[in-house]
């Protein structure tokens, strides 16, 4: 009987998995509408933003840019898949074709293609520095950070500044390259880059970065205490831990059925005391670890043993 139930369960799962795939709409007859750049457009800036309309049931969009066109491509300058309906990049003065399609796991719309020309502004100060990495509002757990951006035509150097939360400049560097490394302070810092030549400069382009290199404190087990026992199968887990200044922290409870801690029964992410349902007539072993949004982790708490009668 148990074997029949297992087979029925497998059939049930396969049926619904297949049904889920079948329910995903076929996009092959749909048309994607592009907003900009339109066919024949002239973009008077090397910073180009591609934009199109949402396609119902599309989970992603594939965007490609060729120079000068896809039929006679000297170079595919961009080939990316994104979930949004807008993408910004920097292109040198030239003629291009771009195309985009909507897609899901099994189907896609036809590509829609448009040609455009990039004519860079004669005014150097009107050009824009496109930052590459790290992304805006990135959270990291190291203080040594490499900043990268795209080249600006006719720039002879780039000025990079770090600003604190009062918008005061705390460090500044210049370089002829398109990357530079800084040692960032703990907390939130703005970083910004502008391009310069002998007579002019662009406006700054700015992003935010959070550094949290401090690992959380080690949790201390409170309950169930070591060698505790109880009759009920609902177990209340509690602990103490002093928070460390930085990004938000959370704890994970690890529950095992063996003293060697190899047979994991349950792992739960928690931020406060919590109830977990377990089996009767079993001895368990548990401990905690703390984590934060910067992917720092604490030392494990001591392991405790308890029994449900």
- Shape, principal axes of CA atoms: flat
- What ranges have pLDDT less than 50 throughout 5 or more consecutive residues? 10-17
Q: Give the CATH class of the largest domain.
A: Mainly Beta
Helix tally? Answer: 1
Share in β-strands: over 45%
**CATH architectural arrangement of the largest domain:** Sandwich
CATH topology type of the largest domain: Immunoglobulin-like
Average the pLDDT over all residues and give the rounded result: 91
Tell me the total number of β-strands.
24
End-to-end span in angstroms?
Answer: 29 Å
- Encode the helix/strand succession as letters: HEEEEEEEEEEEEEEEEEEEEEEEE
What's the assembly state of these chains?
Answer: single chain
Protein name: Fibronectin type-III domain-containing protein
Feature tags:
mainly beta; Immunoglobulin-like; 3 domains; 1 helix; 7% helix
Structure overview:
By secondary structure, the protein is mostly beta strands. The chain has three domains: 85 residues, Immunoglobulins (Immunoglobulin-like), CATH 2.60.40; 88 residues, Immunoglobulin-like, CATH 2.60.40; 89 residues, Immunoglobulin-like (Sandwich), CATH 2.60.40.10. Helices cover 7% and strands 48% of the residues. It has one helix and 24 strands. The strands form six sheets. Strands 2-8-7-4-5 form a five-stranded mixed β-sheet, with no helix packed on it. A five-stranded mixed β-sheet has the order 10-16-15-12-13, with no helix packed on it. The two termini are 29 Å apart.
């Amino acid at each position: 009987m148990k074997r029949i139930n297992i087979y029925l369960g497998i059939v049930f799962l396969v049926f619904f998995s297949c049904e889920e795939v079948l329910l995903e709409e076929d996009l092959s007859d749909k048309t994607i509408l592009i907003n900009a750049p339109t066919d024949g457009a002239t973009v008077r800036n090397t910073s180009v933003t591609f934009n199109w309309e949402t396609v119902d049931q599309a989970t992603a969009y594939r965007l490609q840019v060729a120079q000068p066109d896809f039929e006679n491509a000297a170079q595919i300058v961009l080939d990316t898949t994104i979930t949004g309906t807008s993408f910004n990049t920097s292109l040198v003065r030239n003629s291009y074709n771009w195309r985009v399609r909507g897609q899901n796991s099994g189907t896609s719309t036809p590509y829609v293609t448009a040609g455009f020309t990039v004519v860079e502004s004669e005014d150097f100060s009107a050009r824009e520095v496109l930052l590459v990495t790290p992304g805006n509002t990135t959270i990291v757990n190291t203080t040594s950070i490499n900043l990268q951006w795209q080249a600006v035509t006719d720039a002879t150097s780039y000025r990079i500044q770090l600003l604190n939360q009062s918008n005061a400049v705390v460090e500044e560097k210049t370089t002829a390259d398109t990357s530079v490394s800084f040692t960032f302070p703990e907390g939130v810092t703005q970083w910004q880059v502008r391009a310069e030549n002998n007579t002019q400069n662009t406006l700054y382009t700015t992003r935010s970065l959070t550094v949290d290199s401090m690992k959380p404190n080690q949790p201390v087990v409170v309950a169930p205490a070591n060698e505790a026992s109880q009759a009920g199968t609902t177990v209340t887990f509690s602990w103490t831990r002093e928070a460390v200044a930085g990004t938000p922290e959370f704890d994970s409870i690890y529950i095992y059925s063996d003293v060697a801690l190899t047979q994991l029964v349950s792992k739960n992410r928690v931020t406060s005391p919590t109830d977990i349902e377990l089996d009767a007539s079993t001895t368990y072993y548990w401990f905690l670890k703390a984590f934060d949004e910067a992917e720092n982790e604490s030392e494990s708490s001591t392991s405790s043993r308890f029994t449900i009668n």
